[in-house]
């Protein structure tokens, strides 16, 4: 399993790298909540460095969206990997994801 990380690119953009799966999702959820809680305005997560994902990764993105809404924050995703986009399409959730 590759190491999963969240790295700031600037004040409102973060690079997600590694795998999004059952093992990494709990840690990522905990790391992102404070980012969203202290952000001002829109936050963008760039997923270009995600090496693999499964349905737990999609569930994580949906959870982030729900948390962002609770905090009255806008959240977008950039460079969604094809594997994750396919899972979202099959699950009927592709239109729910705010992609930039």
Describe the overall structure.
With 100 residues, the chain is α/β, with parallel strands linked by helices. The chain has a single domain (5-96), classed as STAS domain (Transcription Regulator spoIIAA, 2-Layer Sandwich). The protein has 3 helices and 4 strands, in the order ββαβαβα. It has helices spanning 25-38, 55-70, 82-91, and strands spanning 5-10, 13-20, 43-53, 75-78. A 4-stranded mixed sheet has the order 1-2-3-4, with helices on one face. β1 and β2 form a beta hairpin. α1 (25-38) packs parallel to α2 (55-70). The mean pLDDT is 92.
Give a concise summary:
This protein is an alpha/beta fold. It has helices spanning 25-38, 55-70, 82-91, and strands at residues 5-10, 13-20, 43-53, 75-78. Helix 1 (25-38) runs parallel beside helix 2 (55-70).
Low-pLDDT windows of residues: none
Shape: globular
Distance between the termini: 28 Å
Strand fraction: 25-35%
Q: Tally the structural domains.
A: 1
- Let me know the average pLDDT: 92
The CATH topology comes to Transcription Regulator spoIIAA
Strand arrangement across the biggest beta sheet: 1-2-3-4
CATH superfamily name? STAS domain
Q: Roughly how many Å is the radius of gyration?
A: 12 Å
CATH architecture: 2-Layer Sandwich
The helix count comes to 3
- SSE topology string: EEHEHEH
What does the largest sheet look like?
Answer: 4 strands, mixed
The portion of residues assigned to helices is: 40-55%
Annotation keywords:
single chain; Transcription Regulator spoIIAA; 4 strands; 100 residues; 3 helices
Describe the secondary structure blueprint for this structure:
Layout lengths: L4 E6 L2 E8 L4 H14 L4 E11 L1 H16 L4 E4 L3 H10 L9
Parallel strand pairs: 2-3, 3-4
Antiparallel strand pairs: 1-2
């Amino acid at each position: 399993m590759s190491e999963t990380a969240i790295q700031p690119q600037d004040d409102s953009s973060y690079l997600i790298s590694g795998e999004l799966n059952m093992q990494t999702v709990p840690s990522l959820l905990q790391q992102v909540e404070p980012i969203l809680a202290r952000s001002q305005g829109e936050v963008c997560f760039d997923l270009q460095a995600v090496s693999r994902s499964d349905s737990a990764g999609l569930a994580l993105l949906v959870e982030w969206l729900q948390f962002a809404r609770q905090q009255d924050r806008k959240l977008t995703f950039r460079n969604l990997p094809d594997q994750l986009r396919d899972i979202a399409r099959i699950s009927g959730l592709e239109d729910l994801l705010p992609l930039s």
